[in-house]
Amino acid sequence: MQTSAAPYAGGSRGGTGLLEGLVRVAHRRLGPWYFHGLVVATGLLVVTVTVPLQNLTQVPLWTGSFEGWQYIGVFMAIAAASGPFVLGLVVVPRHRALLAHLRGQEVDPAAVWRECVTRLPATAALTSLAWGVVVVGGGVAFVGQREDFGVLTYPGAYAAHALILVGVAAFYLMVWELALLPITREVARALPAGFREQSLVTGRRRLILLNTSITFTVGCETAGLSVGFAGEHRSLMVVLVLVGLMTTYVGVLLALVSSSVTRRVDELADALNSAARGGAPMRMLPTSGDEFDSVGGAFNTMVGLLEDHAEELRGSRSRLVSVADATRRHIERDLHDGAQQHLALLSMQLGQLESTCAQHGSVAARVHEIRAELSAVVAEMRVLAHGIYPASLEAEGLPSALRAAARESDVVVRLDIAVESRWSHPVETAVYFGCWEVLQRARHAATGDATLEIALGEHDGTGTVELCVRPALPAEHEAELALFLQDRLGAVGGTLVTRPRGTDVVYVGRVPVR
Amino acid sequence: MNAATDERMPWLDTLFARSYARHRQRYVELWLLVSAFGILLLAWPSQFWTEHPLWGPGGGDAPAFLVSMASATAIVVLFVVPWTLRVAFRPIVLFLRGEPVDPTDVWFAAVRRLPVAGVTFTAAFCVFGNIPTLVAVGRPRGFDGLDYLGGWLVACLITAAAGAFFVLAWEIAFRPLLREVQPLLPPDFDGGTSWLTLTRRSALASASAMAYTGAAVGSLVAGSEDREHVLVITVLATIGASVTFGGAITVLVSHSIFMRLSELKAALVRIGERDYRVRVAVRAGDELDEAAASLNRMAERLEHEEAELRASRARLASVADAERRRMERDLRLRVLARLRQVRQDVTEVASELPDVPALHRLCERVRVTTADAMLEIHRLARGVYPAELTSGGLEAALEAAGQRAAVPVSVRSDGVGRLDPVHESSVYFTCNEAVQNAAKHAGPDACVTIDLARDNGRLTFVVSDNGQGFEAADVGLGLENMRDRVRAVGGDLMVGSAPGSGTTVRGWVPA
């Protein structure tokens, strides 16, 4: 079972989403600096977009209204100052194998895979922990001092902020999973066949994490904005705020879920489709350590098992045929070594008898008759032996065995042989008996003078045999013959197609000859 | 056959599957009752009290609450229950009572009408539940138009979230039903594509969780002006809403996605074990349908291919068998019969020979050689295909073969009668090969017993010797060929042996 040679599911579809396209372009452009680029981009995005947005919704909770914009600046400053340290000290050291892989160094693919898949959630958790202590802790402490926070206000403000942080971390985790996907797929190809590792973040848990974090974020942000917009028509404000937040996040969610669920479902459908069409067996790559990987693993196992099973069945079929052929050869040899020798001796003895009793006219004539009868038996025996197994097939090869068969037949046989070297013995035997069967049927079934055309050829290690009987055989013979040839050639790994030529049918067989 | 029936099911499935098994006749009514109580006792009152702070201070809460509960009860009793039972899920109700219904209708009701029913009921609650409530609440508080609009929209967000929850829950509730309906659907059944794809389903769940949490938290913080209170409420309400409602709806949606995935996986495992009759249900009109349909097509193809390969093997075996019979007949009729004529002629000539000793001697030699040749050909023909097998059947042929064997052979049979020639010859040649193996390997004093028995559509044969036996690992090519031969006609063969305890070849063919 050649795992590395098998194509992989999902390659044909490519990424359809905007995010996936972006990831592909970035991965191609940045090359070895892809991971660094990812870290820097994340840092910039967090400082310039996430932090201001997050704090914008929290300001009312601290000040009771939309005053104190300067706190957003304070948070941004803390984030900008500590971001490089947090990302540099937590993220980069945890993904060294990945960095080495991007630089083109020899690394264990399993280690890279783990860093892309199973290690990522822990990295996200550690990063947000560090972020929560340094940035959120520092920021809330600063704000608390200015705004005279009480004993309950500090933990309250901190917890609300931290809940939003959970959402942000989950969001970035999923973005990173998507961003590292090209690398995951790349290294997954080099993984050993049975590789299966379970990530902490399974598909079910991913959805739970996603929804929990998104509700955390929405809950705390709505609370802040609801306080900020307190006053006339407060419920309308709540609805507007909520609808605004929902439409923003649902779009992002759709993109993330479709990358983690829909993409995998498509891959699965691809793999199953290829198996249903009977094409080259596909393999599914492990890229997430979740339920989909487990289904992919089950699929790969199934393909392997079925291949083994089909191999076993085919092996059994070809063994059956080769045993039957060996038996025929054995019988022919027995005939040749035993019966035919006896008959030769008998013929000689009859000759002696005839010459000895030459002067007894009537008896000599009877003995002569017996000799004539015996030579008829000997000829019959030779034809029979040739039908059982032509001695020349093994010694001289397919063409001369076919010529001998043609000579002995009363059907006109036109041979067109464009083969120079010998084919493997089982193949020669299969082709010979295929032709022999056609010859027999042409003899028994064809009306009038039958002609059989046999053309042998060879191209790129594939032998072709084309058989055509004229006039055409009766329909039921044709069907039986096609089945017989298909079985006989199939047993040596060949195939058969029937092709019309005018009113006749040509049987075209292809066999692997080496 | 369904892939998921014998899988270990998660608790949610187990709950529904059990109640389905126990209360099949009243399954829809049962869960409708549970849902109705859920709405009236839990969802609706909690919605009222969640929104309460947002409306601001004012009196007359108790009458407003009564109005709200009365309108919700009216919707449930007058619309939801009768419409569900009489119209929306009527095919399901009839099907579960065992009345004749088109399974296609049942499928449509359970899969495609369910989201529609969800949307309809949600709309009913938004219009006939939320508006009276808002009016009852807003009048004492002196709401203006925008206040009414805002309050109504917040209420609708919560109602819609609850509606989504019930749709997802009912989807799982209908799973046992669909497992039963799926095999009854016509083979060319096409459910079309549903609006509720996996991605949308997941987004719907998230949106509901967000709407519910946001509305609840936004409204609850409105009740307090104190900063510390607000922050505490924010944090606690967020976590609470997220864990309760968000958690529940996420469990539902992830279950509805991954349950189908585990069905696919179970089917793949079973197919790997060559159980090609497995089919997975294609039903929801979503992305997984394509995978499920492909899986079913794949199983069909594999089943077909395997059958082809087996048929091809059986045909080859039967062709080889027919060839042997033909060779034997040719040897007998075309060679032996004519040689017999030669022998008779020679005998006649011998009686007419003049009294010359040399001639008589020569003639005698010719006669001996003829007899030898006939004997040789006879032996060969018997080896190719024993005439006893054609004329007398298995027992006779094995008895005759046993008498010719190099070891004593006894055949025990309670009369197996005649079988298909291919099956007879498979058993004959396999037993013969086993006897020859015993003669070669079992040792000098060994004797062989052949047992034949026929029952339950099988002919069983056992060839056992009391010889030396061999290590089971030494099963050689000869045994493999025997097995191929028997398997080619649809049977099987096993060899048991251990040093010192003889060898037993045990096999069967269909009879």
From TrEMBL, chain A:
One of its GO terms (cellular component) is membrane. Keywords: ATP-binding, Kinase, Membrane, Nucleotide-binding, Phosphoprotein, Transferase, Transmembrane, Transmembrane helix, Two-component regulatory system. The chain crosses the membrane at residues 33-51, 71-92, 124-144, 156-175, 207-230, 236-257. The keyword Glycosyltransferase does not apply. It holds the Pfam family HisKA_3. One of its GO terms (molecular function) is phosphorelay sensor kinase activity. It is an enzyme of class 2 (transferase). Its EC number is 2.7.13.3. InterPro entries: HAMP_dom, Sensor_HK_TwoCompSys, Sig_transdc_His_kin_sub3_dim/P. Coiled coil: none annotated. Residues 259-311 form the HAMP domain. It catalyses: ATP + protein L-histidine = ADP + protein N-phospho-L-histidine. It comes from the Bacteria. PANTHER family: NITRATE/NITRITE SENSOR PROTEIN NARX-RELATED, NITRATE_NITRITE SENSOR PROTEIN NARQ. This is histidine kinase. It comes from Nocardioides antri.
UniProtKB/TrEMBL annotation, chain B:
InterPro entries: HAMP_dom, HATPase_C_sf, HATPase_dom, His_kinase_dom, Sensor_HK_TwoCompSys. Residues 285-315 form a coiled coil. Its EC number is 2.7.13.3. It is found in: Membrane. GO terms for biological process: phosphorelay signal transduction system. GO terms for molecular function: protein histidine kinase activity. One of its GO terms (cellular component) is membrane. SMART domains: HAMP, HATPase_c. Residues 433-511 form the Histidine kinase domain. The chain crosses the membrane at residues 27-44, 64-85, 116-137, 149-170, 230-253. PROSITE patterns: HAMP, HIS_KIN. SUPFAM superfamilies: ATPase domain of HSP90 chaperone/DNA topoisomerase II/histidine kinase, HAMP domain-like. Keywords: Coiled coil, Kinase, Membrane, Phosphoprotein, Transferase, Transmembrane, Transmembrane helix, Two-component regulatory system. Pfam families: HAMP, HATPase_c. It catalyses: ATP + protein L-histidine = ADP + protein N-phospho-L-histidine. The keyword Kinase applies. Residues 255-307 form the HAMP domain. PANTHER family: NITRATE/NITRITE SENSOR PROTEIN NARX-RELATED, SIGNAL TRANSDUCTION HISTIDINE-PROTEIN KINASE_PHOSPHATASE UHPB. This is histidine kinase. It comes from Nocardioides antri.
